[in-house]
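WARN no homologs supplied; continuing
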Amino acid sequence: MTAPAGNIRINSERLWASIHEMAEIGPGVAGGNNRQTLTDDDARARRLFQSWCEEIGGTMAVDEMGTMFMRFEGTDPEADPVCIGSHLDTQPTGGRYDGVLGVLAGLEVMRTLRDLGLRTRRPIEVINWTNEEGTRFAPAMLASGVFAGVLDQDWAHDRRDARGLRFGDELERIGWKGTEKTGARRMHSFFELHIEQGPILEAEGRDVGVVTHGQGLRWIECTVTGKGQHTGSTPMYMRRNAGRGMARVIELVHEIAIRHQPNAVGAVGHVDVYPNSRNIIPERVVFTVDFRSHVLATLEAMVAELAARAPGLCADIGVKFTSEVVGAFDPPAFDETLVGRIRAAADRLGHSHMDIVSGAGHDACWINRVVPTAMIMTPCVDGLSHNEAEEISPEWAAAGTDVLLHAVLETAEVVG
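OK structure emitted
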């Protein structure tokens, strides 16, 4: 199949304007966004995206997880579609680009085809996956996980937020529970454009990241149990301080990740302390270890070392350690053919690029299990993401979307 001519480009000003118009829905307090999934603002963002797609001939389907599929027909309506997507929901203190860039880049691809009078043999679908962030309803990538068959839909619908509100009920309340069976939709391939959420591309001076792998992940919920006692009247040698046990485990997590370099990371990001009082020695601490690597053997070795060493470190100071894996996915390797098309597109367009491993989870990591999938990344300033100060440049957004355009057109087969 013939690659599209190298002079085809998107309208970068239009893409940039659309991103910032979307950001007006669910504004944060410091220039970013708080547009959490299944909120009224999420519903408004969905309607805006729908209207933009329908203006250029898209038709919508929505599945039982609320995922939006905006379809643009090809000359062969029986052919499986080439899909582009990401997510419109944000963190509570989210930036304007995480996820949103990937959805609106898909829209811009279709606007560009309309502008140029181009058609493809395969249909193209632009997708907004529900609840990628997982900040309101855990876990992350919930809808794409159900679509890929790795999560159960009834279980997903029963997830509850901090106020006890149920995912399925909130999906119905905002009017976005569809009728299409989740996972029934056929796909030929899937592309996702995303900001890097890390510092590598900017530091290396590259325009585009060609994602070859995603990191595998293990979330390990750990509990250290000691004895709650008065902080002022309990002698130091008689204390069973669960907080001290956690401190030992946190240092162990860092040590394990350092030992398994390169391409391994580990940290503790979530902690609950009980009873969480200034003058009571912690009697129990619950925290989550996050280990990641794109090498499965490395990931498993880190988990095994934690399980082997942490109980003893805690027992030495009179506290008890237990753990349970509460989140996991194995490292995906993206489709070599699609990855090659992304590299070739970047070369044709004159953009500097490098192979990169995605350090974060994305919907593409689940969809990769059911159809050929690839990812493109743009730099972001200082690698900052999940923060209202998240920033990219219009030039970075345009470069990534131009590469996406060319890879999609080659895959969907331009017919004129």
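The chain has a mean pLDDT of 96.
OK
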